[in-house]
Amino acid sequence: DGRKPANPAFWWVNDKGEEVKWSFEELGSLSRKTANVLSEACGLQRGDRIVAILPRVPEWWLLNVACMRAGIVLIPGTSQLTAKDILYRLQASKAKCIVTNDTLAPAVESVLSGSQFLKSKLIVGQGSRDGWLNFKELL
C-alpha cells in the first residue's frame, strides 16, 4: 500500500545476534501486564519501592516503563553488586520487592534475613527457584 513500516518502540540485540523488537502497541501492552504483575502478584502499591538488579535485558526496560505506569519507585542496581551492597540497598530503600536473574539470586538469598521489608522476589529467567516468582510465567 506504499506506507513505510512503523519504527519499533524498542529494539534490543544481544551479543549473539538475538533480537527483540516491540512496536509501541506491544510495549504498551507488555508494560501494562508487567504493572499488573507488580501490583497483583507482588502486592506493590503506588509509592512502594522495587530493587532491580539485572543486566540490560528487555525485562529491565519493561520494568522501567511498568513502574512509571504504576507509580512504583524503581531502584536500579548493577549486576556487579556484592551481597553486602545488595543488603545495604534493601535496608536503606525499604524495598518491598527485588527483581534479579538466576546468576544473582544466590547473592540476594544470602542476605534475605537482614531485610525485614522485602515481601516478594521476582526472578527473570527460564528456570524456577524456591520462594521466587517467575516473571515470564506471571507475564
Automatic annotation (TrEMBL):
<dbReference type="GO" id="GO:0006633">
    <property type="term" value="P:fatty acid biosynthetic process"/>
</dbReference>
<dbReference type="InterPro" id="IPR042099">
    <property type="entry name" value="ANL_N_sf"/>
</dbReference>
<protein>
    <recommendedName>
        <fullName>medium-chain acyl-CoA ligase</fullName>
        <ecNumber>6.2.1.2</ecNumber>
    </recommendedName>
</protein>
<comment type="similarity">
    <text>Belongs to the ATP-dependent AMP-binding enzyme family.</text>
</comment>
<keyword id="KW-0443">Lipid metabolism</keyword>
<keyword id="KW-0276">Fatty acid metabolism</keyword>
<dbReference type="GO" id="GO:0031956">
    <property type="term" value="F:medium-chain fatty acid-CoA ligase activity"/>
</dbReference>
<dbReference type="InterPro" id="IPR051087">
    <property type="entry name" value="Mitochondrial_ACSM"/>
</dbReference>
<keyword id="KW-0547">Nucleotide-binding</keyword>
<keyword id="KW-0067">ATP-binding</keyword>
<feature type="domain" description="AMP-dependent synthetase/ligase">
    <location>
        <begin position="3"/>
        <end position="125"/>
    </location>
</feature>
<dbReference type="GO" id="GO:0004321">
    <property type="term" value="F:fatty-acyl-CoA synthase activity"/>
</dbReference>
<dbReference type="GO" id="GO:0006637">
    <property type="term" value="P:acyl-CoA metabolic process"/>
</dbReference>
<dbReference type="GO" id="GO:0005759">
    <property type="term" value="C:mitochondrial matrix"/>
</dbReference>
<keyword id="KW-0436">Ligase</keyword>
<dbReference type="Pfam" id="PF00501">
    <property type="entry name" value="AMP-binding"/>
</dbReference>
<dbReference type="GO" id="GO:0005524">
    <property type="term" value="F:ATP binding"/>
</dbReference>
<dbReference type="InterPro" id="IPR000873">
    <property type="entry name" value="AMP-dep_synth/lig_dom"/>
</dbReference>
